[in-house]
Design goal:
alpha+beta
């Protein structure tokens, strides 16, 4: 049996003889069949080319845009970093240079220049590879790179030719030129002639002269090879070639050619960055969501001109950006001093070495064969590397979010100090320990179970057994006083010993369930006693949402970012509405908790809101600071707005100082400045009041030795403030600009508090707290004092019924980017 290989060899040997026997008629038929075969192959490729509707869509391509609730542009989603400019806005020299160099018979052909194609084919056969594509064919590749491809193949050339013919049937010549010049890439993330003009010459496309136009057009043959920044000599030679081509077409006088070609290449290079917008972290999050929405609904986010209406208020967003920038810059100066290379950084060598070992440079050194000791030694000795590492680790970060508690609509979102330097979103992605901002959930659980703000516990050493012989002993910096303190005071002054005892009575399970029902629904909460002091990491978005529940009379509403999506003509494609509010707390319990948090602002750890920023509106809030000042938090509630800020370092091994790191000195000024400006601009109503009634009970007083009555306030452990005053060490000062334009002047009243002169002082109820025991102070017997009742948990049959507790949610997919904007569901199409 013969194998295939000998059969093929026999056929090949006989092929020459067979060819010699072909007649002239056979050759004629062969020549005539070739174009027919090509035509058939072209017809086969036709379905793989863009349709006429695709071409019309590309002709009217329009980027999608995010809009704020007050009609301002928040972000634009484009294919690339380009700014479209009309043909009339482009220098005529650019058009002359383009046609003279790329397509001399542009106005004579209909997509394909057969003469140029034949010439290019002939030169290629001779060994001189040349391109014969017209401007229209190049545009086809620019517009549809996936459908046409860029491989040097017959298939690509046929698809390119077919698409060019279609383009010529849909576009006018001027539209082809305009579209081509606005889509061609020029390196350095510059797409289109406008961005190229700004990048290489720092001017607009309409201002380009003949030399600059020739330089940019010359790059089209090979943007990298003729890059005027990296290869100026090649670029100058190519520019001169383009000038010579312009002489041949009569668009440049021959007399001026020699002088122009002698001129040096003048480049004014500056990379063009994409406009980030006022809320770049939020924009990137919504971009991912919109891509999914567009895919599901058969829209192109980059071409269909979708208009996404967001809930963000441009005025509040601007105020938030400025407050975060101003206050974070102030804090950064203190952080840089505390962690300078010669002081704090140098003193923590073990920590610094651990930073070095975690870098890619250290791992690369080990991969190259260096020993760990040698790799570490060399990197520590590299000044440039160490400066970069130091700057990265000691750069302070912040997050800020504000929402309307009445409907859950997000009004402002600042994900970091600078999106260009840190794209990590500290509002939704970062999970950090909330510290004392978590305590309202503990007291809320107690109030829900029937406790009253006036109920008391003793400020004493607390020791809670954790099992296996382990104990948790929370404390406050100054030690316990041994005296009774009301729950209101415990929360006002953020007393850890009081909060831990409340947690013992209500239980971690109840507190965790309440926190989840109020809005902490994505983060995992450890149901342990220390949860009372905020040891389970959460996001800023969750905490602001939960405080929004307090401000909304106990009704939880998921945050909403998008209200509706429209097409380019204003037709509503889909509208979104918030979910029905869920009762997380009975209204009377939420109001009791809110009024207790008023005391934090009036007399507790958040007095800087009144004394430093002069805010007299009905507000309530809470500070938070974690161990070693690793995290600083502050959240403030107003009937129309709840806003919160977090401050810290990305690496939590870097901590803030006692003088500037506590939440009252780091996060509070950001929120305080924001509210100050919002109230001053009348974006918020300063006269609006919460539904919660204000506490009207009498304060406790202690008798002194001489028979007089005296009241002493406990130190505000997080703020260093007493009686509303600022501590002398580490006192936070407002920017002088804000002091100069205040409509009032600050002065100290009789108690030493700083109060606006021409504004009425806030209504203050003096919550007199228990002084620490002293040898020279005697008290009346307990039975002779007006003592609040000792707090103890009510029996189950006497507790208020609670709404069904939410179990921890199992998050599917990426929890940072939900399918709909924070639970908003479509209500119409």
């Amino acid at each position: 049996m013969k194998t295939p290989l000998p059969r093929f060899e026999h056929y090949a040997a006989s092929l020459a003889g067979r060819m010699s026997r072909l007649t002239r008629r056979d050759w004629v038929w062969g020549v005539l069949a070739l174009p027919v075969l090509l035509m058939l192959y072209a017809l086969v490729q036709l379905p793989f080319t863009p349709s006429i509707s695709d071409l019309r869509k590309a002709k009217s391509e329009k980027a999608s845009v995010l809009m704020t609730s007050d009609g301002q542009e928040l972000a634009v989603f484009r294919h690339a970093n380009r700014e479209w400019v009309s043909l009339a806005g482009i220098s005529p020299k650019v058009i002359d240079a383009l046609i003279a160099t790329e397509d001399r018979r542009f106005y004579q052909h209909h997509g394909m220049d057969l003469k140029r194609t034949a010439s290019a084919l002939f030169q290629t056969v001779r060994g001189d590879l040349q391109g014969g594509s017209t401007i229209t064919q190049q545009l086809a590749r620019n517009l549809f790179p996936d459908e046409i491809g860029r491989a040097a193949s017959l298939t690509r050339k046929i698809r390119e030719a077919i698409t060019a013919l279609k383009i010529e049937s849909v576009y006018s010549k001027d539209e082809i030129l305009e579209t081509y010049l606005n889509t061609v890439p020029f390196l350095y993330n510059a797409h289109g002639i406008e961005m190229a003009a700004r990048t290489y010459f720092d001017k607009s496309a309409g201002q380009l002269d003949v030399l600059e136009s020739a330089t940019l057009v010359g790059m089209l043959k090979g943007t990298s090879y003729y890059n005027p920044v990296q290869n100026p000599e090649r670029s100058a030679q190519r520019r001169n070639t383009v000038l010579a081509q312009m002489v041949k077409t009569g668009t440049l006088p021959e007399a001026s050619l020699a002088a122009l070609q002698k001129k040096p290449l003048k480049i004014d290079f500056e990379r063009q960055t994409e406009t980030l917008g006022a809320a770049p972290h939020l924009a990137q999050q919504l971009k991912r969501w919109l891509i999914e929405w567009a895919d599901r609904n058969s829209y192109n986010m980059y071409a269909d001109g979708l208009v996404v209406r967001t809930t963000v208020d441009s005025r509040l967003q601007d105020m938030a950006n400025k407050a975060v920038t101003r206050q974070a810059d102030r804090l950064q100066r203190q952080a840089s001093a505390a962690w300078s290379l010669n002081t704090g950084w140098k003193a923590r060598q073990n920590l610094v070495q651990s930073f070095v070992r975690a870098t890619p440079d250290y791992k690369a050194a080990l991969d190259s064969g260096q020993t760990p000791a040698l790799a570490l030694q060399q990197l520590l000795a590299d000044a440039g590397f160490m400066h970069k590492l130091h700057d990265n680790k000691t750069r302070l970060q912040a997050g800020f979010m504000a929402l309307d508690p009445r409907n859950g609509q997000v009004r402002a979102w600042v994900g970091s100090r600078d999106f260009a330097q840190d794209q990590f979103d500290h509002v939704q992605q970062a999970r950090r320990q909330p510290g004392s901002t978590f305590k309202p959930f503990v007291y809320g659980a107690a109030f829900e179970d029937g406790a009253k703000p006036s109920d008391s516990l003793v400020d004493q050493v607390v020791s809670i057994s954790l099992g296996n012989g382990a104990f948790w002993r929370p404390s406050d910096g100054g030690g316990p006083s041994g005296s009774a303190m009301s729950l209101r005071q415990g929360l006002m002054y953020s007393k850890n010993t009081i909060t831990a005892q409340v947690m013992q009575q209500v239980g971690p399970t109840h507190v965790a369930a309440l926190a989840r029902s109020m809005g902490v629904r994505d983060s995992r909460l450890e149901e342990v006693p220390s949860l009372a002091l905020g040891t389970s990491p959460v996001t800023l978005k969750e905490m602001v949402t939960a405080y929004g529940t307090i401000a909304n009379n106990g009704n939880f509403i998921e945050p909403v970012l998008v209200t509706q999506i429209e097409d380019r003509h204003g037709k509503v494609l889909e509208a979104f509405a918030p979910k029905t509010p869920e009762m997380a707390l009975p209204a009377e319990v939420a109001q009791t908790l809110l009024d207790t948090l008023r005391g934090v602002i009036d007399q507790g750890t958040g007095t800087g809101i009144r004394s430093q920023f002069g805010i007299q509106a009905d507000v309530a809030g809470k500070t938070g600071t974690t161990q070693d000042n690793t995290d600083g938090w502050f959240i403030l509630m107003h009937p129309q707005l709840v806003a919160g800020a977090w401050v810290g370092f990305n690496d939590n091994r870097i901590t803030m100082g006692n003088a500037w790191g506590p939440g009252a000195r780091s996060a509070l000024p950001m929120v305080g400045e924001f509210f100050q400006q919002a109230l001053r601009a009348k974006v918020l109503d300063p006269a609006l009041l919460f539904d919660a009634p204000k506490f009207g009970g009498s304060a406790r007083r202690w008798n002194t030795l001489d028979g007089s009555e005296e009241a002493e306030t406990l130190p505000a452990e997080e703020s260093g403030m007493q009686n509303g005053d600022l501590s002398s060490q580490g006192a936070v000062q407002s920017d002088p600009v804000y002091r100069d334009d205040r409509p009032y002047r600050l002065y100290r009243d009789e108690s030493g508090a700083i109060t606006p002169e021409n504004l009425p002082p806030p209504p203050m109820t003096r919550y007199l707290t228990v002084p620490p025991p002293a040898q020279d102070r005697q008290r009346l017997p307990l039975e002779g004092q007006a003592m609040p009742r000792a707090y103890e948990l009510l029996p189950p049959e006497r507790r208020r019924p609670r709404p069904e507790e939410l179990a921890p949610q199992t998050v599917q997919g990426d929890p940072d980017y939900p399918a709909f904007p924070y639970g908003a569901q479509p209500v119409q199409r």
